[in-house]
Amino acid sequence: MEPLTKKIKIAVITGPTATGKTALAVELAKEFSGEIISVDSRQVYRGMDIGSGKDLAEYGDIPYHLIDIADPAADTYNLFEFCSDAFAAIEDISRRGKLPILCGGTALYLNAILQGYNLPGGKLPERRTGEARIRQEGTEAAFVPPFELDALVMGVYFPRKTVRARIEARLDARFASGMIEEVKALHEKGVSYEKLEFFGLEYREISRYLQNLCSFEEMRLTLLNRIRQFAKRQDIFFRKMERENINIYWLNEGKEPDPRKLLRDFLSGSALPEIGFKLSEHHNAPSYK
RNA sequence: GGCGUGAUAGCCAAGAGGUUAGGCAGCGGUCUGCAAAAUCGCUUAGAUCGGUUCGAUUCCGAUUCACGCCU
Asked: Which nucleotide is nearest to A226 (CA to C1')?
């Protein structure tokens, strides 16, 4: 195949959890003939649906990538694999004349793609020696970004207080739609409690509940706090990315500035507006109830 | 009405007449190989009024409130 010489244009939708990233990405994919690449370290695992917020029903006819590509019992997906899978997907979509739309909140993964992390091979940290595939790959598996990207990065913004409320509403909806049963089923299919706890948040706290280490109400409150703290850490990472010169267009409630217009201008090569709002220059209120 | 106990930060909760309680929650940061992970930092309160004292959140008195008991 011919190498791609020009920079490949991609759109990115990111932001903290529970802000409606998927819905926006699907909307843009429909309008701009796009395909979605999930940037989510948990949605890669089969069977982790409700807890990771896959929302597969929202996609309709829009093709998606990097979802359900790993076995939660046997695999431990990581940044290295994500980088090679994501660049492969971007190239594939682009060659077919479609627009790659990256969508997700795993900020490290996104940052690695946007900044073209060059992951060296060679000696790996002690803690990784247990993983067979890493040993096999060794030095030659060093990851070098195969081509450059021209990315329009948009983030869905809500005030922290609103995000917190959305997290709570979504959590209860997830309980109502069978999230506990999902975790139970994963365990019955061979995913150890240890592994489930490693996956974090919903999988960790519900595993503890299933092991009778806490009551439902205790579990729910702990989980609520953990998800909220996670959303804060996502913000902290987005600020770091901004300081590292990644421009993020924060869309108030996902609407303003209009993402369709931004993307249209970006794709046609028109001048984009100045970034009006930087998360890194914004402080959240000192406390919430 | 009488007696007793208590009143500490958003919440829980200690000790001490002068030197940081602590935990949770909150906020911020680090992070190029498990990132929904790991890890670090910050956040100075003592119900009210008066007294004792060089100095009171700590001792004394009154008041208010809460809880318990008694009549």
From this structure: B36
Question: Can you give the distance from the CA of residue A287 to the C1' of nucleotide B50 in angstroms?
Answer: 36
pTM of the shown model:
0.90
- Say how far apart CA A151 and CA A246 lie, in whole Å: 10
| pLDDT tens profile A58-104 | 999 999 999 999 999 999 999 999 999 999 999 999 999 999 999 99
Cα separation, A172 vs A178, in Å, equals 10
| Geometric angle at alpha carbon A79, from A74 and A80, rounded to 5° | 85
What chain A holds in terms of domains, given with CATH numbers, is: 8-158+247-281 (3.40.50.300), 163-225 (1.10.287)
Q: Which residue has the tokens 């902290």?
A: A236
**Nucleic chain B: which protein residues 93-112 of A have CB below 7 A from it?**
105-109, 112
Q: Which of residues 235-254 of A touch strand B (CB under 7 A)?
A: 235-237, 239-240, 243
Taking only the tens place, the pLDDT of each residue in A122-146 is 444 433 333 434 444 444 567 888 8
